[in-house]
Amino acid sequence: MTVSPVKAADERPTEETGPAEPSVGPGVLKRLAASWPRRATIRTDMNRVSSPEAYDPELLDYPVHLLPFAEHPAFLAASEEKRRQVNTLAWIAYNERVIAAEEYVANPTFEKLAHGVFPGVDRYEVKEAVQQSHVDEVWHTYMHMIAMQRTREARAIGSEPDYVQPVTNRALYELAGQASEQWEKDLLYLLWTAVGEISINAFLDLLGDDRTIQPLHTLIARLHARDEAAHGPILAELMKEIYPRLNKRQQEFFIQHLPTAVTTFGAEDYELWPQILRFAGIPRVTEIIEDTRRQPGGDLMLTDFRTVHRLVQELEIEDRVDFDFRVLRAGGSR
Ligand SMILES: [Fe+2]
Ligand SMILES: [Fe+2]
Q1: Are 195 and 258 in contact (CB under 8 A)?
Q2: Pairwise CA distance, residues 319 & 334, whole Å
Q3: How far does residue 4's CA lie from ligand 2's centre (Å)?
Q4: Contact (CB, 8 A) for 9 and 19
Q5: Which residues of 303-317 are buried (b: 16+ CB within 10 A; e: fewer)?
Q6: 237 near 31, Cβ under 8 Å?
Q7: Domain ranges within the chain, ordered by starting residue
Q8: Is the entire prediction scored with pTM above 0.85?
Q9: CATH class given for the domain over 77-331
Q10: pLDDT digits (tens, 9 = 90+) for 74-131
Q11: Residues with Cβ within 5 Å of ion ligand 1?
């Protein structure tokens, strides 16, 4: 079995130093399950989240550089008030994307894992890690709900767009809707969860270190990332248990859809952005969106999928996955 030189999540000193990359090796699940009581944010940091420090109205809610249209002249020409509204709605939508990934993709998959839908999940330490991760995810949803509500109160948000389901979920629903067999649907959910769980820290880190936004927002992202630093190796270990036990057809199906799971996880959401811009009353939305999409790399919010690449190598399927991880990595995340 391959042993990664990277430190495991439970060996990190604090969440403030940022999440560790997934580490795999013998006994990882046992070790992560044993460390959960002192590591899980629901056990250690609930008070910090539910009694947050004061909101600073001068600080932004969302990093400007993460708005893909931030430099577009038509957006810059809009009033400060409208641009601030877009900024706040972008933060709320970011939380909605995280929650939707947990509620509609990860949690149903953790249930399937707990209910024996997939092979290789029989040992106690495997089941224990699945249950702990599921508990974490439900808590994450609650944590992000608190953050959103705090924002709505502080910014006196009276109404919001009816946010679309995020781009990652839409792609999954479409493929699952086309699948005729239940095992295909189950594997799609497992694939989306595996890619999501081992990649989500790249998404959370976009905010975790940012100094231009509310400290509460960065705290939520860092706490969430600390749990996910354990979920990454857990899902990698789970996939190493499950994948070899799938039959040939199932393995082919998994390999075939892996590239879509990766690109949609990192995708900019071009159904969401026009919704937010129009809601805030920004003029020339169609032009802003079309110009933004035409920019090189305009379709991707994340380009760092080293963790998925490592998993693909460990499953020994790299030569069969139609995806060039090196190209994405060259750009890094924005
Ligand atoms: Fe989570
Ligand atoms: Fe997770």
Answers
A1: yes
A2: 28
A3: 20
A4: yes
A5: bbbebbbbbbebbee
A6: no
A7: 77-331
A8: yes
A9: mainly alpha
A10: 999 999 999 999 999 999 999 999 999 999 999 999 999 999 999 999 989 899 999 9
A11: 137, 140
